[in-house]
Amino acid sequence: MISSVSTASLPMIPVPAMSDAVFALTLVLLLLAPLAIAGVALINTGLGRSRSAAQALLGNVTLIAVAAIAFAVVGASFAGTLGTAQASIHAAGKTWGVLGLGPFLLHGLDAATPQAQLALLFEFLGIAMAAMIPWGSGADRLRLPGGCAVTAVLAAIVFPLVAHWIWGGGFLAQLGANFGLGAGFLDAGGAATVHLLGGISALAVVWIAGPRRGKFPREGLSTALPGHNAVYVLFGCLLALVGWLAWNAAGAVIWLHAPLAALPGTAINTLLSAAAALVTSFSVTRIRFGKPDASLCANGWLAGLVTSTACAALATPLESIFAGVVAGILTPLLVELLEIALSIDDPSGAIIVHGASGLWGLVAAGIFSWQAGQLTAQLVGIAALLGVILPLVYLLFALLNRVVAFRVDPDGERIGMDLHELGGGAYPEFVIHRDESYR
Amino acid sequence: MKYAGLLVMPAGFLLTLTALVLFTDSTERLAFVVCGLAVVAMGLVVAVRGHMPARGATRP
């Protein structure tokens, strides 16, 4: 069936010219979008333990730096945002774009169109966000060098591969042109490229690093290791909202070529999705535990925002509320399932919040877009990420773990990542008590 | 077992691609793509089961 593997020019997709006003507005939106990253960093830190707080937040900043450099040096080339060539497979009479072959080191950035420059900036923010997701899941036992190594692999290889498939004219973007499946795989805000990929990476990291010491004792149920600062977590939720409003609006302009008149609706849908998810998570945890759970409510809020990245630009307000309600119901239940039934220790809940909610958002986008074949295109994209990227990420991380150990030694985990890796704690005035939960 | 699950997952993805090439009817395509996704999900379940610590095993 496969006739040849070759390099070819990207198929020409008609892109409407961008006016100066639209360029300026989109740039401003993209400069506000890092608030979403700041919010997630605060949430990750607050959901970890106090003895690892400084290492967690320093890790978030460091990972953004590593991701930006790795993506600039190598990743942007494979994403193919600035170039017009790609490695493709010719099979069944179609061209399947697999990998971008743009210039390395961002060569040609000055000469790129305004649209391409904004797309590249969006991708930089996307990989910064994606890199922080596995870091949150590996909290309290993932070493900083291990986190940096994971991020470098994500930014240089995996993220560019997925970004090319979806945003760079690859085979998922071409599903509409090649097979008449709606407008091809739609991912305006990065639900797949950023959040589902981040969730998949988080799962692989957690599998390889294993659970925190004392989390799953030999007898009995799993031990609750609650986050150390609910204020960080909830303030992170507020900060994330501001960033997400800008992120989704910018994504709608860049990837869907939405008119400016559509942006208020996109922002309203983002807010409605998060609001519906929070109210539902609040109700579910109130019913399940007798009182609402702050961290699960925060997870619900974030799950609603993640869901909105896929469908806010495509759905009506009522549909956005429905998408948020489903995310809000699923999140606390799946977080509990993951911990109690599947023995997966995910302190930040990122596998569910980013992975499962991103996946649901992509399905919802397929349902709500009302185009013939759009749901099929979304399902093919999900199958590509779960069926190809998860095994690939697991393999790469397993090999990487042999070179740079992900997990800290037991003594380091006992005294905390702050003292072990940084030599000082985040809260030096506080007395750190012996952990009584170890059995 | 975990590696078996991870190997099954790409097979599910290839099934979804096969559906696009073999079928032209949208309902048949969607049904076959859903079947491919089910295979991916089956592989994921096997991989998750393979990573679950055995009951009574030494844990960190």
Can you walk me through this structure?
The complex is a heterodimer of chains A (439) and B (60). In chain A, β2 and β3 (94-100) form a beta hairpin. Chain A has a three-stranded antiparallel β-sheet. Chain A has helices at residues 20-32, 34-47, 53-79, 114-137, 144-166, 175-179, 191-209, 230-256, 263-289, 294-311, 317-341, 350-368, 374-403, 410-415, 417-422; strands at 2-9, 85-91, 94-100. Chain A has 15 helices and three strands. The longest helix of chain A has 30 residues, at 374-403.
What sequence of helices (H) and strands (E) makes up the elements of chain A? EHHHEEHHHHHHHHHHHH
**Through-space gap between termini of chain B:** 21 Å
The CATH superfamily of chain A is known as: Ammonium transporter AmtB like domains
Unreliable spans of chain B: none
What's the CATH C level of chain A? Mainly Alpha
Principal-axes geometry of chain B comes out as elongated
Topology:
The complex is a heterodimer of chains A (439) and B (60).
Chain A: E1 2-9, H1 20-32, H2 34-47, H3 53-79, E2 85-91, E3 94-100, H4 114-137, H5 144-166, H6 175-179, H7 191-209, H8 230-256, H9 263-289, H10 294-311, H11 317-341, H12 350-368, H13 374-403, H14 410-415, H15 417-422
Antiparallel strand pairs in A: 1-2, 2-3
Helix pairs in contact in A: 1-4, 1-8, 2-3, 2-4, 2-8, 3-4, 3-5, 4-5, 4-7, 4-8, 5-7, 5-13, 7-12, 7-13, 8-9, 8-10, 9-10, 9-11, 10-11, 10-12, 11-12, 12-13
Chain B: H1 2-22, H2 26-51
